[in-house]
Write a structure and sequence with these properties.
13 helices, 290 residues, 3 domains, Four Helix Bundle (Hemerythrin (Met), subunit A)
Length: 290
């Protein structure tokens, strides 16, 4: 009987393809979204003043429910410690821990309870987004492979920002042009560099605006460079992602020297250019696919 109930609970908690599992996931989704909405509403001073007690009680109800679910997952899983230290296990723990800790820290409780919003990450479990972690692996690989190229580009960006910030300071310097509101202008090189950063990233807060014709020319130049700041790194990363996805789809090693595929998994050299493959990388790819 005990084994039957354990199997039944496992079906409800872990097996989303069953009717009971789907119902459990829907209830869990509603609970997660409701708890996050309460967190947001509780941060509004007027609502907190009027409904603070109700929000607090509701928070404890959700925390107890999530705690029961967390314990059930630990009890029902075949490898409890593996679950506890997994990504989703840590997210589950973070979802309930702040409320309990708030009992002991008193005045700082409100700040700590903001961490409850992290329970929104638990939606990953419901939609089984953990299956997409393999794509995150390819994205991280693409970032790693393109790190050197992107670093060089951002170094160039850094130099441009310093030069443009210094140049706009010389052109718009309030000590030279006697602006009416020097506090709102380019009063120093660091202030001017801040303007260059906000402009080159296409943010443009508008708190500092060039007043002279040459200053506007510099601003226009920085804006045009800003498009490259977004487009070039994205192009580099996209290329690396395409190579990684091509490697996954074909099931063959892609040569990093000539970007051509069609090799066997155990190939040591590129059949197109003769470049040597990294044996460690080959072994890693084969292990991942298995």
């Amino acid at each position: 009987m005990k084994k039957k109930w354990r199997h039944r609970l496992h079906e409800v908690v872990f097996e989303s393809h069953t009717t009971s599992g789907r119902i459990f996931d829907i209830v869990l989704l509603v609970a997660i979204l409701s708890s996050v909405i309460i967190i947001m509403l509780d941060s509004v001073p007027s609502l907190h003043l009027k409904y603070g007690t109700t929000f607090h009680q509701a928070e404890w109800v959700f925390t107890i429910l999530f705690s029961i679910e967390y314990l059930l997952r630990i009890i029902l899983t075949k490898y409890p410690f593996r679950f506890i230290f997994s990504f989703l296990g840590i997210v589950d723990l973070v979802a309930i821990l702040p409320t309990y800790i708030s009992l002991f820290i008193g005045g700082g409780a409100q700040t700590l309870l903001i961490l409850r919003a992290l329970r929104l990450l638990r939606i990953f479990r419901i939609f089984r987004l953990s299956h997409f972690l393999i794509d995150i692996k390819y994205l991280s690989g693409a970032l790693k492979n393109s790190f050197r190229k992107i670093s060089i580009f951002f170094l160039f960006d850094f130099v441009v920002i310093i030069i443009m910030g210094s140049l706009i300071y010389l052109i718009e310097n309030p000590k030279i042009h006697l602006l009416e509101n020097p506090k709102d202008g380019f009063t120093s090189i660091p202030q001017s560099i801040y303007w260059a950063i906000s402009t080159i990233t296409s943010v443009g807060y508008g708190d500092i605006v060039p007043q002279t014709p040459w200053g506007k020319v510099v601003a226009g130049t920085v804006m045009l460079i800003g498009y490259a700041t977004i487009a070039i790194p994205m192009g580099i990363i996209t290329t690396e992602m395409a190579l990684a996805l091509k490697s996954r789809e074909t099931g063959h090693e892609i040569c990093k020297n000539c970007n051509k595929g069609g090799h066997d998994h155990d190939a040591l050299h590129c059949k197109h250019c003769g470049a040597k493959f990294d044996p460690v990388e080959i072994q890693k790819n084969n292990t991942d696919e298995e």
